[in-house]
Amino acid sequence: MIVFFLLLIFNSFLYAQQPHLQEKNIKHNPWELRIYRPINAGSMNDVRCFLRLEDSEGNDVTKTAIRKAYYKHAGSPDKNYSYKNKIYLTGGTILYLNLKSGKYKISVYTPPEYQYPYSKKSSGSDWSSNIFEYDTENPLKVIFVYPTANENSFYNGGWIINYKSPEFYEFTKPEIIHEGTNK
Description:
11% helix
């Protein structure tokens, strides 16, 4: 036990004497936000949820506030993928956003044409998430997006954005929404 503590003290001393090791610490870019959509059960992974960014006045700034956006997939974490048009997430993807400085309202939505197979008859309305307020001056590193479900655990067409990760079983546990309430 004494040897362990001596080694610990010695390593701490060496680290303090070598500032080049301290400089290699990874520093978070305050304008980079990661939005993670964990893997869901079944074909829910293929249902896209599209990103919407708004400024404090409610103007859509999705195309103007983002300096750079790319994503990685859980199946190939070493490869970056570019977006061609709209920015979206599927199950198992992490979206990397480099944002201009400011305060934003972040939400995701799924238009009716992308709701298949969970909405074979188009409801005519978007599946929408809550609004998550994000400030680059007081940044988080990661936020999570995951689907909602009814009391029987069937996906029911909604999304949750949260700074806390969802519960996991084999897949992401959906957020249960009780009929007639917000939660």
